Structures are given as C-alpha cells and as structure tokens.
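Please predict the structure of the following assembly.
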Amino acid sequence: MSTVAVSPAPEPVVDESRALWAVTRYEALRLVRHPIFLIAALLFIYGTASTPFNEYANASYDAPPHGDNSNLDYTVQAAFLLGLGGLIAMNRITSSSGRSAEVLNAAPMAEPRRTLALCLACLVPGGLALLGAGFVFYFWMTDPPVHTENWGEFSNAELAAVLACGVLAALGGSLLGVLTARWWRWPTAAAVTCVLLIMWSIAGLVNDTNALLTLNHLGSPFTLVSSNGDEWSWHLGGSWLWRVPYLVGLCALAAIGACAHGSDGELRRRQVRWATVVGVLTLAVLLIGTFTGPEGYYSWDDR
Amino acid sequence: MNTTIHLDGVTRRYGSTTVLDGLDLDLSPGITGLLGPNGAGKTTLLRILATVLAPSAGHCRMLGLDPDVPEERTRIRRRLGYLPQESGYPRGFTAFRFVDYVAALKEWTERDTRHAEVRRVLGLVGLSDLAGKRMRTLSGGQRRRATLAQALIGSPDLLVLDEPTTGLDPEQRASLRGVLSGAGHRSTMLLATHQTEDVAALCERVIVLDAGRVLWDGRVIDLVATAAGKVWLSGDEEPAALSSWRTGTGRYRHVALDPPVGVETTEPNLEDAYLLLRAEAASDQVSA
C-alpha cells in the first residue's frame, strides 16, 4: 500500500492576541459573576465610597488623631476584600476549568496562554482597587487627614505608594489564586493560602526596629503598618516607595509561576529565565526598601 | 491513499505498565472504528492522537505535522476535534456557555460568528432547546452531546471520539450516527467504542486493539466474514460455546471457534466476529 502524507491544508489566519483577549474577557466575566468576588467588591466599593462621609473626614483637625485611623482603611480594604476575595474566586474559577482539562488541553490555546488569560482577568480586581485608590488619593489631597501627623510627614509620592500597595495586593491576591489552583490541586488550597497570608501579615506586625523584623514586616504582602495600640505609637519600618516595586515583583512572579504550569520547550526555558531575573530584582528592592526607609516609632507624643 | 495520521512504533508506558506497545498505524480520511476490551489502550491511543498525551517512545505525524513541536502541535489542534471519554464542566456553565468557552479557546475571536457556530453545533447534536440550561441540570446523555458539540466546532479535519454514544437513548444514537457519518465524509474520524453496532453502522474500517497491540486492522465486512459458519442456532444450550444465550424466540444462539458439524448456521455480526477474534488471540497465546 503506497501512502502519501497529507500536507498541511491552508489554515485560517489566527490573530493570537485577539484570541487571548477573547478568552480573557470570558474569564473576567466569570470573575465578575463569581459570588465571593461580587460580595468582596461590593463591600470594597461601599467602604471606599463612604470614606468621605465617615468620621475620618472630620477627624483631620478637630477630633483626636488617634480617635480614628481609618485613613488606612482603603489599603486594608483593598488587600483583605479584593485581594483575598480575588484569591478565592480566581482559585475556584481556575480549578473549575480544570474539570474539563481533557477537552481544554486539546484546544489550540495551550495551558500557559489560558493561564495568561486568567492572569489578565486579575486586572479586574486590580483595576477596581486602582479606581478606589484614585478616589482616596484625590480625597487625601483635597482634605489632608491626620495620618501625616501620626506617621510624620508623608510626601505625596509616599501617600501614592501606600495606596499603590493596596492596588497591588488586590492584583497579587487574585494572581496567587490562579497560581495555587495551577500547582496545588487539592480542594482547600485557596483557604490554606489565605490563612498563611494572614498569618504572615500578622507576623509582619511585630513591633520592633530590628532589621530582620523590618524585612519580614515589609516583605509580608498584606502588611502595612504596625502599631502597639496601647501607647498609640506606630512603627513604619522600611521605605514605602521601594515596597511598590517589591510587590510588583511578587505579582510578576505569581503570574510567571502560574503560566509555567503546562509549559515546555523554549517557553519553559524563557519562563525560568524571567522568573530568575524578576526574583533577584524583587529580593533586591525588598532589601533596599528595608534598609533605606524610615525606622523607629512615631509615637503620638512625637507629633 | 492519503494518510492523515501516521504512527510509527508508538509506545506508552505508565510506570512499569505498557499500555501501547510499538503501535504502527496509518489513518486516512473516513470513519475508522476502534474496538477493544477495557485496558486495551484505546483511550491512551486517542489521548495521544488528541495531543494531550505524549508517547513514551515512537513517533507520530498528524495532518503532516509533528505534535512534539509546540508550534506544530498548536496547528494540529486548530484542525482537531476531541471528545474525551470523561469530562467535567466549569461550574455554573450553561450548555451554550460551555461550548462557547471552548470555541473561544479554539480561537474563534469574532463573537457573532462564534455564537452562530455554537448554535450550529448545538443544533447538530439536538441541544438547541436546552442551550440555556446549566450543564449540571442536564442528563448524562445531554451532557455527552454538549461535549460532542464542542468537538464538532469548525468542522475539524481530524475527529477523535472516545465512546460518543455512551449514555444515549436509541433515538439519540440513531440521530448522532447521522451527524457522525456526515462529519466522517469530510474528515478523518477515529471512533473508539464498545458498541459494535455503531462501528458496523458507521465505519468502513475497524481496528481491534488488545493489550496495546493491533489485533485486527481492516474492513468491517472482512472482519465479519471471519465469523461465517461459526454462529448457529439450536434448541439447547451449548456450554462449550464462546457465547451462548437464549433469544427472544426461545432458541439459543451460539458463537464458537469450532462449531459442531451439521448445525444450522446463521448470519454473523460484528460482535460475533469480535468475540471470535479475541478468543482466537487468547488461544494462540496459550498455545504459544
């Protein structure tokens, strides 16, 4: 029997970028419709939108500064609502798609690109957090609150950095959800990750000026400031400006790590190279942030 | 003869277990049936052809492309439809959204065109009226048809179907045969099943796998012809027969490698031939 191999038939011209965005749109819609994310987003919107109307608005000048520290609420809200909410929702969305892995793995859009689409969908919580940050920043600019007195003087750039940390926590939490779903395929992976993150953040609240503790404080993704509330003093170790690129690095590492699942060949080698470069840079900016920022306590009496 | 798929010494091992053992195979346009007992390696072969599993040894070429090369693998997948033996569904998806989601992953970027295609394939499998229902509320057969619908998106050149008619009622099976025979005219289709009637009804060629090796590769009618004279009817049970059962008419139908002389033979079917082939292979193994 003589055989003639079939030569490749003319293939449709595929715009891979458009295909990626079509799937990203799909994943973003799935995220927006996810009940956990929906509740988290509504609480975040409520919390952020009500900022001008809560007691913080009036605390700037008349009320005792320690009477309300809600000027940090935005960042905490973004991290714990959009960050953790996004983590759980994206983890469930990613795992849920995994049920049809056999069908999806035969699709031309390979797993690393599908994961990239999921990562791009994480821009939804990141974008929502960014809108909130813009709103709060505008509010801070037009009606400077008491926090500057609590922590010493903050420049506008430092204020923006504090807010950016909230945005990156929202983005990074969601990316972490994708990462854990890709690599830890057991049912409670998202919950365990949340608990670990919260424990790390609590560990980051240890109130000391020791460089190692500052490193841990600055390195824990969801930690902002530490306080020993009884004495109304605040500890703000490290540089907020350097903490922003550190968090950007963590987000990038989470995305690269997630996309590495199911990759092979040249793509995998490229991912390893990128992860190494980003990992080194991330560690470097964390160390710079640790040793260049303000150190020590800003007690109420120091004002 | 055009070859769409060429397998050369394809072997697949899971640990110390060899599931496919040096398989050489050529597939051409048309519908080819794949039969074999559980554990014969059918699903593994289909997964390799669907590019979701790589062989441990050997080489494949599909549609003139090499699935080991990532770029070529993507090009194969653009022309491939795959129905796995088992598949889950993303939570909360309707039948329409599930097929639409897969269509998006198959790079159908234009929303309107994609939706039209999704409606077309759902119509083909008779799910138009249930498109808006959530997958988890559909019956097993309806979910199976929805999964088949995603395989038909874009009328692929290569269709790899693992037990497509499992869980379907007779009407659905008959209607699906119409769909598959239509698709088989335009593409190369490999259809693994335990339903010999489906193979007899749809396929010109049949491959029988056993213990990871090809036991038979040829025309369906030739395989059926091997059973001629080995199937007979009688009024009594025949304990020595390979298969023997009382039919609705009250008579017994027997299948055996060596039927008694002078019996009233009857027309064999593919199932008889398959049973005989397997029995013959087993006896060869024993004598070897």
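The beta strands of chain A are 4-5, 226-228, 233-235, 297-299. Residues 156-183 of chain A form the longest helix (28 residues).
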